Task: structure prediction
Amino acid sequence: MAGQAEKVFVPTDDELLQAQSDLWRHSLCYLTPMSLRCAVDLGVPTAIHRLGGAASPSELVAALSLPASKLPFLARLLRQLATAGVFSATDAGTYRLNPLSYLLVDGVRIDGDASQTAIVRAAASRYYVEAAMGMADWFRKDFDGPVPSPFEDVHGAAIFEESMTLLDPEMDQLIHDAVAAHDHMGIGPVLRQCRELFEGLESLTDCGGGDGTTARSIVEAYPHIKCTVLDLPKVMDKVLLPAEEGAVKYVSGDLFHVVPPAQAVLLKLVLHFWSDEDRFLQGQCWKPNTSWICSCW
Ligand SMILES: C[S@@+](CC[C@H](N)C(=O)[O-])C[C@H]1O[C@@H](n2cnc3c(N)ncnc32)[C@H](O)[C@@H]1O
Result:
């Protein structure tokens, strides 16, 4: 009631115990992607695969040529990753590949030619971690003009921009490999499981379609669909394909300026770049009656 002193919040002992354990969990949960990255760098999924699909920590220490003194630590890492759903733990004390770790075996390619390990190595890289650690400073800063992302603020370069290529060509390539890996992996199951999305469709523009992997898969599955891939000139310049290849056409441009007309627009792994205001502007570039076929992220 107005004027009445607010009751001061005092947690119960049960709540305090729960809160303290949640605090530990939240403070340390960044170790899960770090452990995943460590397992990928060590080659654990590939070693399990080569050992027949299941392996004990000691078999892995031998297979990976790790010092024997690291056995208890590797056992902990495996336990942690099994708890996180990366491997499956068996009653016999071994660890098996599951669908997630299967993706991380060397040579495994899902619906294309990209290695999924790039996703782990890019997302759990020092670039992403440092950007995340810069968030509090970023919040405090009052920027003149457009607000950069924390990544751009910390590194002075933006993902998918020329600045990133200049800063660290290897990391830039890894980020592109990660996107290609996602692109290869994501579209196969969508095409197989959501056939109705594409039924009756004759033309489609894939905005921010990268090197056209998605568009080529769509056309392979639905040869009657005419696909146009729109991406920025710096991306299109690297696409070593003719401007038109069968039913796929490649167009250089900025989707905020012009979107090649089509019955439907695909935005896959693109929307997260922009604010709601930007997205509104984007919508204004589209011809009336255009449908969104799909909008992931
Ligand atoms: C995360 S990638 C997604 C690529 C692809 N759609 C996929 O699913 O893997 C985002 C793409 O959007 C492109 N992009 C960013 N801003 C753009 C713009 N203003 N106009 C056109 N493409 C843009 C980037 O160059 C990049 O290729």
Notes: The CA atoms of residues 164 and 170 lie 10 Å apart. The beta strands are 54-55, 87-89, 95-97, 203-207, 226-231, 244-245, 248-252, 264-268, 291-296. The longest strand covers residues 226-231.
